[in-house]
Specification:
Helix content: 40-55%
Number of strands: 17
Largest sheet: 7 strands, parallel
Number of domains: 4
Shape: globular
CATH superfamily of the largest domain: Metal-dependent hydrolases
Structural class: alpha/beta
Oligomer: single chain
CATH architecture of the largest domain: Alpha-Beta Barrel
Length: 573
DNA sequence: GCCGTTTTCGGCCCGACTGTTTTCAGTCG
């Protein structure tokens, strides 16, 4: 069991918390957090990189010292510094950072004065009124701690992007109706289109004294007001989601949007760049010796740093600023580049629309093609097609196609990959199809090696073209299964196969990080909706979001090709 | 602990809100 990127990042983050409580150099703490973020977002496993002799110090935020530590962690599967430091503190102490309003300084204070070393001890002390004697702790703090104790694990919940949209849109409409409000823009990770968001950030420009924040907190869905100042407010909604508001004047709109869109790491890099040019950048604008010189639009802010506009989806401080500086930003794929959908279901299996309805919906979206890929007959899938029904469907598709001009339904199937890597349909059933999608819907608990080899074996079948939702994750419900994704991608490339970016907002599988990995490996991806109804063909935009976050350009995506070129690419030697 | 179009040493983004303070530290984003 080797340690992978997420575990190494977690070790650094937990180490940073302890360093902070210890009162270590805050910049050292930040260095560990930066390194953790770098590792977390790396398109390749550090263990694999080390195996191939890559120099980790070339990664942002990783110098000689951390490179050595990472190598040690990978080879020993232990983080010695962390284990040593951990011994100096009670095991539950770091959990206290979960309580809002309690940070490293207060944790240290509580531990010294009251020997509080866990969430349980903290709530016990609050209940008995023992916190009152500690400087900085009053009635409000005590009540807040008890409230957290009641809800307990209420925090840390993230929401799917599609869910966040449903919460955000009516709130935005509510804010637009407030007198004096000019622009209302959703920022934060929502605007960067992360697959999940922890909270919503809303930026408002308004005339002076429009008292937007005071109205903001009166929204009907608000369950708790966390903060309410003249230009800034935070609430928690009944749905559990936190919403932060920021109000600025129009001339600060661009600067505030950069600030509020983040990511935090992207902003820090921009501001540091500004410093070197003698500029101060904050949410109100770009300043030269206290003189405002820009900030009305985002473009103006980047321009002051000698940079072109950077798309929000790229703002993760993962090389986008360096790429911008040398004019090498990717020209990101857009919804308009998509020429068709390569994975959709009908009522023949578990979909709800007819073949005709799906074709009509695809044509009305301007597509040149739509693959109908109903499930194969296999356990766990209702109404899967056996060879006879699949052949009958293909004949029906041919009859329909005869009526279309400039549009074609592609005969396909989403065939189950059995635990041993064989397929749930015989070759004779696959051969006549335009494309075959292989998918895993069972035996999620294989080892990474077994699961990888199972899927590679499926790709050894010369009729298989695309592997659907490669990790099988359901966001917030089911973890991705173990998989050696780099090996799988290389195997796909060698065989002339492709992997899918499933655009269902509950899947988004492959993820943004894996999109970037595929691009680096020269593997094209299919962005497919897996639609089970006509309307959900619109989920394509969620797939596009993640592809853009993964730096994909039109050329990196299979279904940006016209029909003729697509069929040529699908042909396996 | 990282990093360099001022620097291999001495910096490290910047500002708002809260609670409890009698002028601001701590926390958060």
């Amino acid at each position: 069991m080797t340690l992978h990127n997420p575990q190494i990042a977690e070790l650094f983050n937990r180490y940073a918390v302890l360093l902070e409580i210890k009162g270590d150099n805050p910049f050292r703490v930040r260095a560990y957090r930066n390194a953790a973020r770098t590792i977390e977002n790396l398109p390749r496993d550090v263990a694999a990189m080390l195996g191939e002799g890559d120099d980790l110090t070339e990664l942002p935020g990783i110098g000689d010292d951390l490179a050595h530590k990472i190598a040690d962690i990978v080879s020993t599967e232990r983080f010695a510094d962390f284990e040593k430091l951990k011994k100096q503190f009670p095991p539950g102490l770091a959990d206290l950072t979960e309580v809002p309003g309690i940070g490293p300084k207060r944790i240290k204070l509580l531990h010294q004065k009251l020997k509080i070393d866990s969430l349980a001890a903290l709530t016990e002390a609050a209940r008995k009124g023992r916190l009152r004697g500690v400087p900085g702790f009053g009635a409000k703090m005590e009540a807040g701690i008890l409230r957290v104790a009641e809800k307990h694990a209420a925090g840390e919940k993230r929401f799917r992007l599609s869910v966040a949209e449903m919460v955000a849109e009516p709130y935005v409409r509510f804010l637009r109706r407030i007198k004096g409000v000019r622009q209302v823009t959703l920022a934060g990770s929502f605007r960067r289109r992360r697959d999940t968001v922890g909270d919503l950030d809303i930026l408002v420009t308004a005339v002076p004294h429009a008292s937007v924040a005071d109205r903001f907190v009166t929204y009907g869905e608000v369950s708790e007001v966390l903060a309410n100042g003249p230009t800034k407010a935070s609430v928690r909604l009944k749905s559990g989601i936190q919403v932060d508001l920021r109000v600025v004047a129009s001339r600060s709109y661009g600067a505030a949007l950069v600030y509020f869109t983040g990511s935090k790491a992207h902003n820090i890099t921009l501001r540091t760049m500004g410093q070197r040019r003698g500029l101060k950048i904050n949410e109100y604008g770009v300043f030269k010796k206290d003189k405002w010189i820009a900030g009305r639009t985002e473009k103006d802010v980047y321009e002051q740093l000698g940079l072109p506009y950077i798309e929000p989806e790229l703002r993760e401080n993962q090389g986008e600023i360096e790429a911008a500086a040398i004019g090498k930003l990717p020209k990101l794929v857009t919804l308009a580049d998509i020429k068709g959908d390569l994975h959709a279901h009908t009522e023949a299996s578990d979909g709800s629309a007819t073949l005709e309805d799906m074709a009509h919906a695809a044509r009305s979206r301007g597509y040149e093609y739509l693959a109908i890929s109903d499930h194969s007959k296999y356990i766990g899938v209702t109404h899967g097609l056996d060879p006879a029904r699949l052949a009958a469907q293909a004949r029906k598709i041919e009859r329909l196609n005869a009526k279309f001009e400039n549009f074609r339904i592609l005969r396909s199937t989403e065939v189950d990959i059995l635990p041993d890597g064989s397929l749930a349909l015989p070759d004779s059933a696959l051969k006549p199809l335009d494309l075959v999608i292989g998918a895993v819907h069972s035996k999620f608990d294989l080892s990474a090696r077994q699961q990888t080899e199972r899927i590679i074996r499926a790709m050894d079948n010369r009729y298989v073209n695309i592997i659907a939702h490669p990790f099988g994750r359901l966001i917030g419900e089911r973890e991705p299964y173990a998989l050696d994704i780099e090996r799988l991608m290389k195997a796909a490339r060698e065989r002339g196969c492709f992997l899918e970016l499933n655009a269902q907002p509950s899947r988004l599988d492959l993820s943004d990080i894996h999109c970037r990995m595929a691009k680096k490996l020269g593997l094209k991806l299919a962005i497919s909706t897996d639609a089970h109804t006509a309307e959900t063909l619109d989920y394509m935009r969620f797939g596009i979001d993640q592809a853009r976050r993964g730096w994909l350009e039109p050329d990196d995506v299979l279904n940006t090709r016209g029909l003729k070129e697509l069929l040529r690419l699908l042909k396996r030697d």
